[in-house]
Each structure stands twice: as structure tokens, then as C-alpha cells.
## 1
Amino acid sequence: MSIYFIGDVHGCYNELCKLLDIINYDDNKDQLLLTGDLIFRGNKSLEVLKLIYKLKNTNVVLGNHELNLLAINNGILLKNNNLAVTNNLVFSSELEEIINWLKLRPILIINKIKKFIVVHAGILPFWGIKKIIKYAKEIEFILKSKYCKYFFYFLFKNIVHEELFELFTLNKLKCIKFNISVFTRIRYYYNYYQLDNNYLGNPVNKPIYLIPWFNRVQILNKYSIIFGHWSVLLSKYTPNKIYNIDTGCCWGKKLTALCWDNKKYYYVNKN
Ligand SMILES: [Mn+2]
């Protein structure tokens, strides 16, 4: 039995199939964990979701694009940046069953025996493991609950439905919103942990005041971190025990798998 991670697929179904072939993935023996952003940008998002949904020993953390899809499905976001790509997925009759499955996916996967965590974008460096688990569970709890729709209004439109106060105070809701941004969107922060959404480039040419989230992460004495979301890194620039496996397949580069047992990388180039 081997554990494999695969980075952001973004609707690149053909490349995903090829990569599973290359690693000789066996659904009865192996485990597959994906870093999220399975969908959008590429044009075979539905095929990707159906494939992952059907595999038995697979899990995926939610990325910002899965959250967008859930918000579209709740009628809160109307469209994604590429309407043709979005429509193909959003108006599919097969989507409902998959959405019900997607809503139950975690924000964070933790393996306490193998000592790794999987997250879409990242964490804050000073977060300890207990805090990380607690923050992820709070988000997962809301997404699974009947308050999910109201929470998406808050997340995407900043509209506060008072039903939400049956769960949390406004301050707590703001913290949860911030934590979602960290888990699903963070690249750099500045000034006491404000997130930067403007500079997407690699750390070599970064503005001096920005700090990549993966510098000085405190849990590395115990855990490794596998993440996606930041394709310009191309698996470089990160410290030991932090693995970026989004290698920009949807941008014409490649799709990456990492085998946990031997830390070997496998690649498929974009067709
Ligand atoms: Mn992303």
C-alpha cells in the first residue's frame, strides 16, 4: 500500500488519468489524497469530480474553487471567471449527488501516524497543531450544517443573516472567515498576519515586506505539510518538509503526484 498526493487538477481530466496510470494507482491497495482545486480553468471538471468521487480510498481537501462551486450551487455566486467552463459543470444533471459529497470534504487532512497534513493553500506559521485542527473543524462543521448557505452569504457577500448567531458571535464568524482565507488562499502575509492578495509571484522577486507563509512554520518538528494553490512555486522555494505539488497543469505546465513512501515525484505534461 502506498500513499500518493496529487496537486491541483483544475479540470485537466486527461492528464489526471495519465498520471494515475503512470503511478500504477491501485484503488484496492493505495490511497490518493488531493490538494483541492479539482475543478474550473480546464474544461473537464465534471469528469474529474466523477472520477475522484468513484474511487474508494481517496480524499480531497477543499480549495478556493470548490468553495466557489458550492457558493454558485447555493445561488450566491452567479458565475466563475470562464462562463463556458463553469456552465458545463454547473448545469449538469449529475452535479447534485457530487455536491452532496463535496460539501463533506475536509479543509484539512491530518495523518497522525505518518505525520503529515494536507491543505489547499497553507496555514499561519505560528499556529500549533491543536489550533490548526480546531480551526479546520469549525469550518467543516458549518459547511455540513443547515447554516452553510447563510455562511456563504457572509463569506462572499459580507451579508450577515441572523441565523448565523445561533452558532457563533460576529467576532467568531470573522475569525472563521479569516481562517478559511488562510487554509484556501494564503500565499504571503505582511504586518502581523494580514494576507496579501496582490503578489502571486515566487519569493525570489517578492516585495520586501511580504513573507511567504511557509517560512518559520512551527509544527515542522512534528509534521510535514503538502499543499497546492501556488503554481508558480513549481515545487521549489519551500523549506524541508513542506511540499508544494501544484505545478500549473491548467497553465500549460504539468500535473504532479508525490509518493509519500519514497518521496518520489511523478509528472505528466499538459497535452
Ligand atoms: Mn487555489
## 2
Amino acid sequence: MKRLTYLEAVRFHGHTGPFLALGYKAGEYAMEKLKPQKMLNIKCSVKTIEKKPYTCIIDGIQCSTHCTVGKGNIKIEGTSDERVEITFRCKGRKVMLTLKPHILKRVLEAEDLEKEVKRLNEEPLESLFEIEEGSRRL
Ligand SMILES: [Zn+2]
């Protein structure tokens, strides 16, 4: 299962940006942790505000995980509060990533998007998201 590179994700999405990068990175992490054998073994649900730039995160996830709207293994749940919560499930295991509030604030205020993406790509995932892992009942 070959996933798209970040550059291919940028081509798919149309532009680079912190939310695309965050989604791509979160998906990459989940794929490494959950190692799905088949594409449809992994499922994703995203809770966030249903407007740009928040929703750009969905394209990042789709490109790095093969969880796509077309295949039905990604669901978007709109919220009214400012948050980004991504849950991946695979064969009874679960990885949940919640974007840290100060990172959300920082990326929303970023003026130079390319610079912000570069910064995000250099930071470890743990400093961007609260990460919980475990069984489905977690
Ligand atoms: Zn975008």
C-alpha cells in the first residue's frame, strides 16, 4: 500500500498549509502505529469545525492513510467549538490525536504558511497533539 508523498498531497489539495500538513502527519503516525493489512481495515473519524482551514486537515489524512470519503472509511463530525480531534481505528485498536490548543492558535494566526508548515514538519508529533492509544474501549 503506497501512500502519497506530502508533495503529492499538496498537488491533490491545491496548496500547502498547516492544516494539510497536520492531517498528513497525524495519518502517517497512525499508519505506523496501526499497520493496517488492508486499506479498509483502517477507519478514521475527524471532529472539527466544518469550515476552512480546519477541513484542510481531512485532505492531509486522506493522502497519508487511504481513508477516503469515496471509500467511506473517513467520517467528519462537525463541532461548534474550536478543536481538532482525529481518531483512527484498526482491528480493535485505536489511536486518538487531539491538536493542542496552543498549536491550533498558532497555526490559525500563522502569516507565512510555508514557514509554518516547515516548522510543523520539524516538530515531533507529541508536541503538536495529545496522543492516546489503546483498545477500542479506551
Ligand atoms: Zn487548504
## 3
Amino acid sequence: MHHTAEKGVYVLAMQLQRPARLTVGHLGVFDFPRGYYLYVGSALGGFAGRINRHLKRKKKMRWHIDYLLEKADLLWIDLYGTDSHADECRLNASVACLPGAAVIAPHFGASDCKCDSHLHYFEELPPERPRL
Ligand SMILES: [Zn+2]
């Protein structure tokens, strides 16, 4: 993790060891295949609090990602310093363009924007990191 900035947007990588049928809040029930997931989020209020929250196992479910992180293992988080909320969806578009990306749960983490989803599934973890 590079702490070159205090706030911005981020990519969180997860591995799901076994397929899981999960209820994602009001979004619905989805069958998540085993494999890798990249999630794009923003932490314009500060990285520290948001990352600590993602790492916490027991918490009140609030965001879509909270439901997936109950079952998936967090692999890494890449931080991209910015003040702009628009960079979250720009970074998301970059992740969606990585080879093999697929959407399992439409609108996941993307309730307030026009992206298909802020969660992207990969059978194999992409070797390259997305660029903002
Ligand atoms: Zn978006």
C-alpha cells in the first residue's frame, strides 16, 4: 500500500475461495463464482478510516461491499490520491477494461452513478494494476 495521499479512490482486490450465494442488501441475491473480484470505491473523507473499516470482520452491514467481504478474502488495496469524485468512475472504467472482466451483480457499489457495476469478476487475477 502506498500512503502518498490521504484521500482519494481505491481498488480493493478479493479472492472468493468457494462459490457463494449472497444477499447484497437491497440489491438482491447473486451467485458469486469462485475467483477474484476487484471493487472500486472512493474515500474522499480519508483512506485510513475506510480501509480500517474494510479490514474489520464484524461490522454493521452498510455498503454492498460489506456483504462480499464477509465471505471473500481481502488481497490488497491500491490507493489513488485525488479530490475528485468523478475519478471513482474513471478508475472503475479502467478496471472494467482489464482482460476477462465480468459483471456478476449489476449496480453493485454503483447506486449513485451510471456505471454497470463497481465490482468486477475475474477467473484469474489480472497481472496488471488498473490506472487512473
Ligand atoms: Zn461509477
## 4
Amino acid sequence: MFNPYGLFAMPTLETPRLILRRIAMCDAKDIFSYSCDEEVARHVLWSAQKDISEARAYCRDLQRRYRRDEPSSWGIIEKKTGHLVGTIGYMNYSEENASVEVGYSLAHWLWNGGYMTEALARVIDYTFDAMDINRIEAQHELTNPASGRVMEKCGMRREGVLRQRLYNKGKFVDVALYAILKGDPRPLTSAKEPS
Ligand SMILES: CC(C)(COP(=O)(O)OP(=O)(O)OC[C@H]1O[C@@H](n2cnc3c(N)ncnc32)[C@H](O)[C@@H]1OP(=O)(O)O)[C@@H](O)C(=O)NCCC(=O)NCCS
């Protein structure tokens, strides 16, 4: 059952072109349609899905996370089509440090249209305005500069390169670490959470 009081309540959020909402089992088809693409999976820690059952398993895992108030993801819905076209969410939450990491992915056919920047800016606003979080981190493989650009446009600062930090798809990869603090400027702030 949805826990409206937990830290990871994941309420529905809106941007000019997108709705961010909790993922339901009926989203599996949309998720599979872009997550089966090797290009989308190239720089993330999951592999391209081979069968829709993998998308269903992902949706089931998220239902468990929502129920247990664990770090989880929103589905990104394109208002124009009503389809779920990506995800954005949390991982690596540290209560003692009031920090959390964000990660995201988007259907290939929508890249470079500004969607993920729009989604991340909204999630940063929500995280700082409605959650007890002081630091949001994100990391990307050096060979995936578009993701770093999204972070930069949202006011995240590049803090350094962590050499061979991840083992992904058969090799060790260097990643750039980005972060934004609650007190940092937010160049794309739009809607504010009610106080
Ligand atoms: C990374 C990703 C989320 C970006 O989403 P998006 O909606 O295309 O991002 P935006 O359109 O908001 O911004 C992309 C920016 O990167 C820039 N960019 C694209 N390719 C680039 C490249 N090879 N080098 C440098 N910048 C690049 C774009 O020009 C744009 O910047 P601009 O607005 O200054 O022109 C999307 O490509 C994706 O889902 N990739 C697969 C999954 C993934 O890699 N997730 C992130 C893991 S860290």
C-alpha cells in the first residue's frame, strides 16, 4: 500500500511537458519498449531487457519498494502521448548524512529534447523542499557526457573523477561524480512545494 508519510512517498510531480508518477504493473509494456534498446542500457547498471517479463519484474520490485518506503523511482510520462518514456529515482540513501543519489533513463527516440533536464530539475526541487535531504549526488560514466550535461544544467557541480569506480558490462569504468547541496543555487527551479 502507498505510504503517504514515508520519506520516499514519491508523490505525483508535474513539469510543463511531463508527469512524474509512481509506476504501476500496467506500465510494463511501455518500459519494455525502450528498455530493450542496447543504446539506452549502454551506460546504466542494468542490461537491455530481452523479454517483457523483465519489465514486469522491475515493476513488481518497485511496488515492493513503494510499500516499504525504500528508495525507488518515478515513471516519466510524456503528457503529449500519455506514454511512460523513462524513469528517474533514488538510490544509495544515507540517513546519517542526509544524502541520496539520483539516476535516470529515457527512451532513445526522445533524447536531446530537454526532457531529462526538466525531470531532474523537478526532482531536485522536490527533494530539497519536501524531504530532509541536504545533498543530492549523481554519477555518470565519462563516456556518457550527455548525462553530465543534464546534471550541470540543473545546477549540480562536478566534484571529480572516480577512476574505475564501477564494473559495468565487462569492464571497469571511470565515472564523474556530481552533487548539489540544499543551499546551492538552482538555476532551473520552477514550482515550489507548499510549505
Ligand atoms: C542521459 C539522458 C538521460 C539524457 O536525457 P535527455 O532528455 O536527452 O537530456 P537533455 O535533452 O535534457 O540534455 C542533454 C544534453 O546533453 C547534450 N549532449 C548530447 N550528447 C552529447 C555528447 N555526446 N557530448 C556532450 N553533450 C551532449 C545535449 O546537447 C544536451 O545539452 P544542451 O541542452 O546544452 O544542448 C539520455 O540520453 C538517456 O536516457 N541515456 C541512456 C540512459 C543513461 O545513460 N542514463 C544516465 C546514466 S548516468
